[in-house]
Amino acid sequence: MSESKSSSKAFVDTTVLADSLLKVSDRRTAARDALKRFDETSLPVYAIKEFIGGPLFNFVYAHKVFMNVPTYSDAMSRIQRLSRTPQRYKTASALEAIAVAEESIADCTAQEYVDKYGANASIQQTRLDEMRLSLKTIILIAWKKRREMTTDVSNPLSCYFETAPIETKQGLLELPTRKCNPPNECCMADQLRSRAKDVEKLFDVVSQLDQDRENSSRRKALRHFKRTPKRPMTEDLCKGLGDAVFALYCPSDFKILTTNLRDHEILANVFGTDVESP
Amino acid sequence: MLPTLDESLENLRKSIKSKNEAQHLEADDFLQNFISLLPELFAGRDLGNGFGAIVLGIFHAIKNSASTPLDIRQTKAVFEAIDTLRREPYISHLAAVDILIGVEGVGLVPHPVALDVISETFELGSADEEGEKSVL
User: Fold this and answer.
1) Looking at chain B from residue 117 to 136, which residues have their Cβ under 8 Å from any Cβ of chain A?
2) Mean pLDDT estimate for chain A
3) Which of A82, A241, B1, B4 is 20 to 30 A off residue A37, Cα-Cα?
4) How far is CA A117 from the centre of its chain?
5) What's the predicted TM-score (pTM) here?
6) Positive or negative torsion for Cα B18, B19, B22, B25
7) Residue B57 pLDDT greater than 70, yes or no
């Protein structure tokens, strides 16, 4: 959707942050162009938390896979094993597409380089190292730029600490803090208790949706404040809220900017918030 | 490796000069000469991850903009990246990341499109804790 600057303020969700930092082709351009459309773009720290625990972690995992296998095809097979979902067919198709979609530096390497530089210059090793280096590079760039894609980073979470990826002696990357570490409970808990009516409205809406894994977790988190509000809010409940956080915390003069219009619109409508996609 | 780096810089210098003189075909010709040297430069990545990351980033930055010839600002950014390698071939990966952020800053995308296929795979499945453990 390409809209004019009808609202000049955007509350940016995790999908747009991930596309702007981790995508290479069209979705990267769309996300970055969308961010430029607005005078103000606000990124809640919750989006950073979701980004680190989700898309960035996936790339860190993929980097580990490529570091731990002897060949490129081994790595791709390993990643393919992730397709334990009903989407298995689509996943396999995507992996097959890699053979035609990619332009690898390995395709341009020559036998004389093997003679000159050794086995590292072989096509198989070049292709493997290409992915190892590319994944590590995009992870490190994404980490460095995660707070620079928007004009503002908002809604700090006092129980969540962003700690830079570390590299092990074996050259693997690790993300030390993918989750919150609240001393007693999530720092959003009191705010959510004080907004019991808003939370209840969201609960009613979510309860009417298909209870897939995401909606089920969200419903459980919202139900916590409806039925047992005095009990501590755990990290799992915080994670379960997901898109509801954006609906609850989006300032009234902002639009939510997301690639996931369908899920966000249902929740944002509860508060009359507009939602826009890149 | 140093002669190949020198040859790369010479081609980029000539490409920039030709662009300044509005000799666009000639400028692209020199750029093509430079591109042909990148696989050999990558073969020398034993110098370190930073070296390999910059060579690879430049290769994909140019490939990703294949339908549009590099403008003079972009060509200069590529020159500066390769010039850094000539001066600091043992550059760290973290320092290389800063160079590649500069390359991104002129509108180039220094990553392989294959990464999109991998991330789309994860969007369909998920790298959960179980997946992580299975690798280690």
Assistant:
1) 117-122, 124-127, 131-132, 134-136
2) 87
3) A241
4) 39
5) 0.90
6) positive
7) yes
